[in-house]
Each structure stands twice: as C-alpha cells, then as structure tokens.
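Reviewer 2 asked us to include a model.

Predict the structure of this chain.
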Amino acid sequence: MNDTPRGDARWWERRWFAVAAVLLSAVPLLWPAVPPLTDLPAHIGRYHIAASLGDSALLRQHWEYRWRLIGNLGVDLPVLPLARMLGAVLAAKLVVLTIPPLTVAGFILVSRTAGSGRLAPAAPFAFPLAYGFPFQFGFVNFTLSAALALPALALWMRMQRAVASRAMLFVPIALLLWVAHCFGWAMFGLFAFGTELAALRGEGRAWSEAILHAGLRCVPLAVPLVPMLAGGGSGDGSLGASWEWVAKLQWVASLLREQWQSYDLLCALPLLALVWLGLRSAAMRVDRSLAWAAGIGAMAWLVLPYRLLGGAYVDMRMTPYVVALLIVAIRARDPRFANLLALVGTFFFLMRIATTTWVFLGAAAAQEQAAAVADRLPRGAAVLVAVREPCRSWSIARLSHVTGLAIVWRDAFENGEWTLAGQQLLRDRHPRAGAFRADPSQMIFDAECAWNGNDLPTMLRRFDRGTFAYVWTIDLPVPQLPPDLVPVARSGPSILYRVSPTPHKRLPYGPLAH
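Predicted model (structure tokens):
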C-alpha cells in the first residue's frame, strides 16, 4: 500500500487513507466477545473439540476429529494453535477479526494494481462489502480464502509479463487458497482467467487464441485438483448440484443485508447504480482487467448452482466480490467528479461501518442471552437443540448455531455441528441419535417455509432418550411437552429442559440468574 510514485496523488490515493480504511473495517468486531456471525459459534465449538479432544474424556465420548487435507481449513489452521493458549473463543475472534481488514486491503491492492498505482475514487463504495452476506452468515473459511485471493489477484496481474516465474510461484499460492476454502480458490481461478483474457485480447489476439492461451497460463492454478481427486476434496464424492434460479436475484438484493430491510436495500442501490454507470456513462471508465475478471465471475455466477459438493449458497458467496471488483475498477474522467465520488464513497463506508457496529452490538447481546442457559448443563451433557428458522425475515437469523458455545463451555454434544464427509473433519459418536445427529436437524422452519423439515412436537416425541439428557429450544413457542421433559432454565428466547427418567410434576421456572 505504498503511496503512488506520482507527486499529484490525491487524498484517497495516499497511504494514510488506505491504512485508515483497513483499520476502520475491523471496528464492528472489536467489542463482541463472540463475533455475531450466524455459523461462527458452531465453528468455535469445532475448534474447541480439535484443540482439546486429547485432554478431555468428556469430549471424546461425543466426538472424533480425523485430520486430513481438505479444502475447508482456512480459519481452523490458525485458530487451533492459538486456542491451546487463549481458548477457542478468543482465538477465533482474533482470526475472524482479520478477515474484513484483509478484504479491504485486497480491494485496495487490486484497484491500485489495475490503475498503475492509483486507487479508484469509487473504491470506498466497495469496502462495506467486506461485511457482505457470506461474512454475515459466518462462512469464515470461504471469506478468509476470498480475502487472501484478492492480494493474490493483484500479484497475478503484476506478474503478467513474467509468465514462467508466475507459474512456479502460484502453485503454492493456489494450494494455500484451496486449503483455506475450495470455493475461494475456484473464484480466484475465474478472476485470474478473466484478467489474463483481457490482457491477451488487448494485445489483439483472436478470441479462440486468447481463450486457449489464458487457459494454459492458468493451468498451474489447477494443482489443487490433485489432492481433490486423491480424496481431499470438499464433498461426498458426488456433485450434488441443485439450482435456485429465483434466489439469484435475492443474492443481488442482499449485497448488504444485515438487519433493516429498507436501509440495506437503499444502500445496495447506489452500488448497483455505480456499476451500471461505470459501464455505460461517458463520464466514467473501468479498468479493463478488473472488468473482465468481474465479467467472467458474473457469467460463472449465472450458471453456478445453489448447492454443490455438499456446500450450500455456492452462487451467493461470489456475489459481493464480483460487484466489488467492478466498483474498484471505476475511474472518473473529470478530476472534480473523481473527488466528489471519493468523498461520497468514504461517507458511505463510514455510515455502513457505524450501522454494522450498532447491529453487531445488539446481535452479540442477543446471542449471549440465548446462550446463557448452557451454564445449567452438566459438563459432558448431550443436548438436543431445536431452533426456529424464519424464512421471510430480512434480518439475518443469528441464533441458528449459538448452541455451539455449549461445546466450548461444557464439553457438550449438540446436534447443530457439521459432520459431512469430505467437507469437515469432525465426526460424532452417537449413531443412536439417528436423524438428530448433526446440522440441519436443529432447525425448525416456520410453517410457510418451502423447506419443511422437522416439526417440534414430532422431534420431541422421536428423539433418543438414551442419547440426549437435555432439550434446548430457541425462539419457539412452549410446546405440549412429553411428560418426561422438565423445564430447568430460561434466558431470553432459550428454554432448557431436562429429560427425566420418570414423569415429574411441572415446576415453575423463571429467568436464569446471572
């Protein structure tokens, strides 16, 4: 992030601006002890298991952790050594805290690389996309891989004329991106191909020749196919592809989805308008290499399925990065307009950081309140979790995996972890739990949802009493309870029940004391 060598660098092109933007992007994550990202508590539970399994007989009665090389270890690898020193919660926070700053730094680097050392004045509009839908969902391995892919893309463009040296250097880089997350690696490959195609077409090569040579230059990036084919891929051996075509429009509308629908949609509109104007307006131009990279990414996004190789939201994950590449490529032809664009973009970035900070403070408090009943679980307990999953709420559901913290605090077993072969290294040791062994068995969707799975009364009748000693419901109405469930604690939307071997008289209970 060095200053441009020109003496006429404008204020948004200076080093202080880049450093300030990178540091500010971390602010929403500073206060919450657990970053309030939907999937993160379950990830933290997995980190705790991996770090503590050898020392905890209670964990070993519930879990196995089978080390192997897979394309889904981005946050796991740096967290595990830290977790042994600091605990899984703090270790996870410190690593996750780096993802938005790395992403913003990556946006700056690719914009400067494409712009001969100058940051595009529109770039600050892209910075809030570091907190886009994939990060809010807690896809931390993917978003770390994507954050690392951005400086890798800048380096790829910078070494465009050193083809042989670049080929050797990018073999380990491609492997690193794949180990972080296979979808992040694949996205980088698409963007790299797009920049290469732009360069070859700029040299006057015919389409067929340009496509062939761009593909050949990207062959070193395919090295991770070797461990994938050898059994280290992410999936169960089948593609498992399915498409949700209408949802693609929802992903575009959800670029900045967080909590307040009208506000988030109004904030997404200037981003989409800016992309349109950048491509169409005579007052603006776009950097060719980044525009082509985004174009290839957009074409892939159009045909990508919703679900692939056991992973969901495959197409959604790419959306903010495709839009961001186009935005950081936009230049204004008039210096006065460029100054205005940078000013408005910087205000937009500061506004989104402020509101995200506020949302995260409230969401973290709500997660903490919901998780408090875990204090009433005996160490090593197995708890059946049932969480309400709304499908028509704009506000992101952040309680879906909050029970993962019970694994950290109580060495517990709960049915919200992911144990899919090829995608995760974690396995449970409770075959008798049957359909209630792992995610998404904890999710109780609203009746109007298209994805009707479990319903609470059936779940409470059918679960294995030999496996689960407790039941934990979140944001669900108090059901007609089987006679062997005794309420023991309540905190906010959470109610904890104990499975009693003999029916008990219902006892009154109140909020959990803190």
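DSSP finds 20 helices and twelve strands in the chain. The mean pLDDT is 91. We have added this to the supplementary material.
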